[in-house]
Structure formats: structure tokens, C-alpha cells
């Protein structure tokens, strides 16, 4: 099936009342740096603290009556979105996760009424368990990114961006499985083909970037990152988000853990915002000089605020952070 703008318009109608229309606010500090208006799309203000509610709600609202329940695998925010949207529709939800997922995210999903099952050490293993539950227990599996309703739901962000700022020149989208980037690119490019949509990932374990380079979905080793929401594969049998990202994204830019660390400090100290590492990859790319010069306003998606606060406090204090085999050297914030 191919997705079109009409699917995104239908998603916008479907999710009204479950997901909110989020504000798009200027960052004076980042605008000065970019030499253009630099705007932040605050998905942190969604009821679950992340944009994933849009796609999950659209998928669940489009299910036929009489399904037993829904299941998914998730590094956290998709699980929250599915749990919240399932509860809103009175459906049972089972969320499968790998053991790499931070405890705060596991607790957050349980609090939304879903059952959590921890399996394996990678997103791919968690996904296999979710498939099994779907096949053997009669649940409907909701992919975090490779589902037409999920992509259309995330695409409503692109629609709102173009409604609020038709003059946008560049959109910086945090990129993992590519549901967000595919949906936003479809909306933005259909409405304004000259606008550039750029995916941004961390430089270790960026599965979509490796897949676009290889010309087909490939696996990458999953490693710890400050941008933990961007970890995981895109699925070797990816049908939708891979071809859409390959065909619609103008570029994919990669940022280092140190660049993510600094960008988290910038967003907090300059804009007074608490966000996950995954949200600031676009800001990190700007600060690191990794973007081509914008010809008009730039927007990035502040995708979620479900951050481990212990790590967040260390970063704001300029302390070292150790994640798995990686230590990021601390540095106090200086503009
Ligand atoms: C899921 C997620 C992303 C990436 O979305 P994809 O559709 O997987 O590319 C970015 N940021 C946050 C906070 C997320 O939860």
C-alpha cells in the first residue's frame, strides 16, 4: 500500500481528542546560531510526554471491533502510546521490551495499565515476542514505525508544522525506525516540495542510515546511547518506513554522544526545557556545524521528555556520564 497526504488528514481527524495539537515555539538562542528562526515542536506536551501517542492512537482507533487486545515492542515511548490509546478504547495491551530499556520507562508503561514483558537484549528479540503473542494469543501487533496508520499518525506533526509556518525551509527529524521521519516527510514534501526534511541519528547504531547506505534494511549492533529512544533496528522485513525514508529524506546527519550531551545542556539552560537525548539530535547537528545553511525557518521536533532524571541531573551539572561501555566526559555548560 502507498501512503498519501489524505491518510495523514484522516489521521488528524481520528486522533483529535486523544493526542493534542502541540505548540511550535521559537528558540531565540538557536535562532541566533542558525541565522534563521529556529522553532521547537513540543511533543513533550502530549499526555504521555512523547509524540508516539499520535501513531498509536491512529492505529488503535482504526482497528475493527472485537479484537482481543494489542501488543507491541518498544524502547518506551511507543509502549506508552499504545498503553494510553488502548486504555482509552477499553482494550488490553501487552508491551514487550528488551532488558536494555531504562526502569523508569518500564514503570511508566505499567502505570498506564499495560502488561510489560521483558525479553532478550535487543529490540529485535522483543519484537519476536510481540509477534508470537500476536500469532498465538490473537492480539493485534502495532509496529512502532512500520505500519501505515502509525506513519500517518506521526505525519500529523508535519501537517501542523506546515499549517503554522508555511515558510519553513528545513525540518530536522530525530530518526530511528523512521515512522516519524516518513510521516513528516510525506506531509511536508507533499505540501511544499522545496522544503528539506533531514533525518538525524546518533553515530553509533543508526540502523536507518546504515540501511539507506546499503540500499536495503540491514542490522546494526545496538549500543547504549544518550539518545536511547533512537536505538534498535528497522526490521529486515521493513515494508514502509524504509522506502519512504530512502525516497523522501534529503539527507541523514549523524551526531556524537558528546554533541548530544552539549545539546541537552543548551535546550535546558537556554530554553529551560527538559527533554530526552533523542530530541536534541537536530540541535546537536546545528551546534556541530553539520547542517547546510538554511534559506528560511528551521524546525526540529522535541520528541519526548521521558528521560532518566539521574542522568539528566549529571549532564546539567557537567558531570561524566557512563552508559554501558561508553563514558562521556562532562563539561559545564557555556553558551
Ligand atoms: C520513537 C522516538 C523517536 C524516533 O521515531 P522513529 O519513528 O522510530 O524514527 C524519536 N524520539 C523519541 C523520543 C521517540 O520515542
Give an overview in words.
The protein is globular. It is an alpha/beta fold and 335 residues long. Helix 3 runs parallel beside helix 4. Helix 5 (103-111) links the parallel strand 4 and strand 5 (115-118). The protein folds into two domains: 5-50 and 147-328, 3-Layer(aba) Sandwich (Rossmann fold); 52-141, 3-Layer(aba) Sandwich (Rossmann fold). It has helices spanning 5-15, 28-34, 52-61, 77-88, 103-111, 123-137, 148-164, 179-191, 207-214, 241-248, 257-271, 281-287, 309-316, and strands at 24-26, 38-42, 69-73, 92-97, 115-118, 140-141, 170-174, 196-202, 251-255, 298-302, 321-323, 326-328. It binds pyridoxal-5'-phosphate (PLP). Pyridoxal-5'-phosphate is lined by residues 50, 52, 77, 144-145, 174-181, 229-230, 276, 278-279, 303-304.
Task: Using brief descriptors, characterize the structure shown.
Rossmann fold; globular; six-stranded mixed β-sheet; about 40% helix; 13 helices; binds pyridoxal-5'-phosphate; about 325 residues; alpha/beta
Outline of this structure?
The chain is of the alpha/beta class. The chain is built from 13 helices and 12 strands.
Q: Describe the sheet with the most strands.
A: 6 strands, mixed
- Any guess at the CATH architecture of the largest domain? 3-Layer(aba) Sandwich
Q: How many extended strands?
A: 12
> How much helicity do the residues have?
40-55%
- What is the CA-based Rg, rounded? 18 Å
Low-confidence stretches: none
Counted by DSSP, the helix tally is: 13
**Distance between the amino and carboxyl termini:** 47 Å
Query: Structural class of the secondary structure composition?
Result: alpha/beta
User: Do you know the CATH topology of the largest domain?
Assistant: Rossmann fold
Mean pLDDT across the residues is: 95
- Any idea of the CATH class of the largest domain? Alpha Beta
User: What is the domain total for the residues?
Assistant: 2
Kindly report the spatial arrangement of strands forming the biggest sheet. Answer: 1-2-10-7-8-9
Q: List SSEs in N-to-C order.
A: HEHEHEHEHEHEHEHEHHEHHEHEE
Amino acid at each position: 500500500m502507498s501512503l498519501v497526504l489524505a491518510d495523514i488528514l484522516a489521521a488528524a481527524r481520528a486522533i483529535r481528542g486523544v493526542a493534542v495539537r502541540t505548540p511550535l515555539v521559537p528558540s531565540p538562542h538557536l535562532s541566533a546560531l542558525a541565522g534563521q528562526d529556529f522553532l521547537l515542536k513540543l511533543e513533550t506536551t502530549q499526555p504521555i510526554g512523547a509524540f508516539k501517542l499520535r501513531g498509536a492512537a491512529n492505529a488503535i482507533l482504526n482497528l475493527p471491533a472485537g479484537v482481543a487486545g494489542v501488543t507491541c515492542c518498544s524502547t518506551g515511548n511507543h509502549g506508552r502510546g499504545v498503553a494510553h490509546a488502548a486504555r482509552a478504547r477499553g482494550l488490553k495491551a501487552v508491551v514487550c521490551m528488551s532488558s536494555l530499556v531504562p526502569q523508569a520507562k518500564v514503570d511508566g508503561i505499567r502505570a498506564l495499565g499495560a502488561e510489560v514483558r521483558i525479553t532478550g537484549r535487543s529490540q529485535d528479540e522483543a519484537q519476536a515476542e510481540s509477534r508470537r503473542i500476536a500469532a498465538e494469543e490473537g492480539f493485534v501487533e502495532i509496529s512502532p514505525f512500520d505500519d501505515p496508520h502509525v506513519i500517518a499518525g506521526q505525519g500529523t506533526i508535519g501537517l501542523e508544522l506546515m499549517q503554522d509556518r508555511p515558510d519553513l525551509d528545513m525540518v530536522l527529524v530525530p530518526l530511528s525506525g523512521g515512522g516519524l521521519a516518513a510521516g513528516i516527510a510525506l506531509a511536508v514534501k507533499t505540501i511544499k516540495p522545496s522544503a528539506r526534511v533531514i533525518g538525524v541519528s546518533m553515530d553509533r547504531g543508526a540502523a536507518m542510515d546504515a540501511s539507506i547506505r546499503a540500499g536495503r534494511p540491514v542490522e546494526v549492533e545496538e549500543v547504549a546511547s544518550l539518545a536511547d529512544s533512537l536505538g534498535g533496528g528497522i526490521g529486515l522485513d521493513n515494508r514502509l518506513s524504509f522506502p519512504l525514508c530512502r525516497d523522501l529524506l534529503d539527507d541523514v546527519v549523524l551526531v556524537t554522544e558528546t554533541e548530544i550531551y552539549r545539546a541537552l545542556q543548551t535546550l535546558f539552560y537556554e530554553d529551560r526545557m527538559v527533554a530526552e537525548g533523542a530530541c536534541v539530535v537536530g540541535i546537536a547537528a546545528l551546534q556541530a556545524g553539520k547542517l547546510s545553511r538554511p534559506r528560511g525557518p528551521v524546525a526540529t521536533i522535541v520528541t519526548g521528555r521521558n528521560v532518566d532524571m539521574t542522568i539528566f541531573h549529571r549532564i546539567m551539572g557537567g558531570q561524566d556520564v557512563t552508559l554501558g561501555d561508553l563514558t562521556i566526559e562532562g563539561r559545564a555548560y557555556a553558551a
